[in-house]
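Provenance

Sequences were taken from public entries as deposited. Structures were produced by running a predictor on each sequence independently, with no templates supplied. The record for SET domain-containing protein from Stylosanthes scabra is shown for reference.
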Amino acid sequence: METLKGAIPEGLKRMIGDSTVDDLSATSSSLHSFFHHFEPFHQLLTELADPKHALCGKSKDAALESKQLGNQCFSKGDYANALDCYTQALRKAPFEASDMENNFVATLYINRATVLHKMSLLTECLRDCTRALQICPSYAKAWYRRGKANASLGNYKDAECDLNMAKIMESSSSGKRQIESEQKNILDQCNSTSTGLQHKENTLTTVGEVPQGKLQCVTIPEKGRGMISSHDISPGSLVHSEEPYAVIILKHCRDSHCHYCLNDLPADRVPCRSCSVPLYCSQQCQTKAGGQVLRIFPEVHSAIEKLPSDLGEYAVKVIQGHDSKHETENITEHKHECQGVNWSAVLPSEVVLAGRILARFLSERRTSEHITYFVEKLLIVLLHYSSWLTMAYMLLMQELSHFYEHMLPESKLDTHIYSIVLLYCLNRSFGAAFSIDEVSISQVVIIISQIKVNCMTVVRLKSKDAHGFSDQFGEFPSCAYLTSNVEQVRVGKAIYKAGSLFNHSCQPNIHAYFLSRNLCIRTTKVIPAEGHLELSYGPQVGFWDCKDRLNFLKEEYMFQCQCTGCSKVNLSDIVLNGFCCVNPNCSGAVLDSRVINCEKQKIKNFMSQLKIDKNDDIHTVLNQNNASCHIQPGHCLKCGSYRDLVSSSAAVDKALIFIKRLLDAILSKEISNTTIADALKSLHWLRSNLHAYNKLIAEVEDNLAQAFCLLGELQLSMDHCKASIKILEKLYHPDDIVIAYELVKLCSIQLSTSDGAAMDTISRIGDIFSCYYGLHADLVFPYLKYLRR
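Predicted structure for SET domain-containing protein:
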């Protein structure tokens, strides 16, 4: 892409960079004309969209190479790498439906199943065996491995049936003797087992909950459309739930998360059948994404026709299990990308997402069951426009906002280039349905700009560096402790047509989270009738100060935030990066020039108010009666005393050198007494220069809590953890979800020391999580169920 961009004449670049929406037809036509006569452009299209040049296609030679590496790892007992090699082989192996009896893919599934069994991943092993049998029902080794997995799971009845099937399908006498020996072992295990209960696989199911109340979409001055409540809504109420119109996984999560549902991938991940890019958590997700259903008819398979009726019924039940019953939906998001071509793996996520939106719209238009819907939606448009792409553009313009004219010149140029490239790639998949002219290009430019400001980032909660914590399948040890950070990991981007109508606030009253790929929105505060429902687009009060939030929102979403958190003074924005007063008896805050420039007018407005709530913590850091001349860099907002910010900043920088050494020691788990002593001294320097509620102090207190935890000094760890939380409760609301994450750390230490206060902490964590996640709390944050035990 850089080659294309570099070749564009400077005059054309300026024309595009200065363009408005009204100029798009001209700019699109000019750039398209230039590319049409530019040979490297056509060479790029060939590399992106011609299956003959694809790097993402299937290759049996590459699959065989990965299989051989897997065999070598397996023979050495390196099961983790063997598992990865066999998965890569499955990803690359072509599916040869014509050769079902000696299918290479079925062999790979059994090789991986064997590794999974060795790793005690029995349920995953069972699923891989079933997948092999769905391809080749007469595969004796698959029935045998399935029987052993069922026996290990305690499913003795199924294990016996599996081994009977294996014995019938096995042709060699030595193989039959091995199976009979295994049957005897299973019979002995069954007789020695006190319970006859069958193993039940633990599956996380979505808790059904219907959104409460009715919301209204209204036009809000200076904000456009937004959502308001039609009645009073209490905190913790689910007010909205929605499936995405289109979704795309982010590139850094392609090997760790399902490309359809965006959940974590299991060990027995399922590849796409036609290309080597996506991985799925199940065949259901693979089918929904690509629309490819493996149709199995075992009842007419020659080997199964000869079975006794009861065993034949069992074989049919196994092979036609829930993993292969999923019906294909009419809208499949990956199908148009799934031809071995490279463009969906190379182009930016929002561009691929635009392709999925357009492909879905086209598919819906072509599907007969959607005719009535589109006649109703597009009747007026059909009278004036002949292009279906124009119809899609008109509908999206009604649903989503765009800020093309606020985009930076370079971003406008990139959007033009990607729009042309995307249309050519879609044209290779759909043919004449995607015409390429100045009208269609300009419309795709707007659609991509809409995606930039309307798409939502799908996140997952993740706790990293959990010392002493078992994984989600194990038990919570009585002596465990958790000093890791709970973070939101970005896994995908999605368009939610109704979800995009909720406006932003840096002090939100609703909270968005995701179950699989579905958006859920829940209230966190009381919302009165006709009250605005506002969520955070990323940064909020307490996380960043006002100037950083404003810059982020301007760059990412192209609007100037005017929410209450940014237009009125608040304690967090004053102290988050503030310095303390030189007067030890004064609790006032001292600000540098960057913060002063952002906060000065808000502070003046605050000081001019006639009536102020005396319980507001803002009074601890500034004086309403203070002269406006004290609202200057380096001057205390409460008493006016001056602090030398140059020397204070130098002291902070010096302290951070020792804190960095502490962090390195924590990472290596080699913490010396000298490192701890230097870090404690640095904390003292920070407290002598920074305001008591400065977020950096909270972070250092948290670092020390983690360090003492690793050293086994749990009481000291608890003290520093509490000190960190005390500061964060000033920066955020005490019932903010961020506080709950920090309380999880405190609770884990309390449990380790048998502190009686742990139950109160658990109760508080539960209350906050219930408000933010309701019945879905345990699904979103699995650690919560351990704390409740």
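Residues 194-206, 368-386, 465-481 have pLDDT under 50 and may be disordered.
The radius of gyration is 31 Å.
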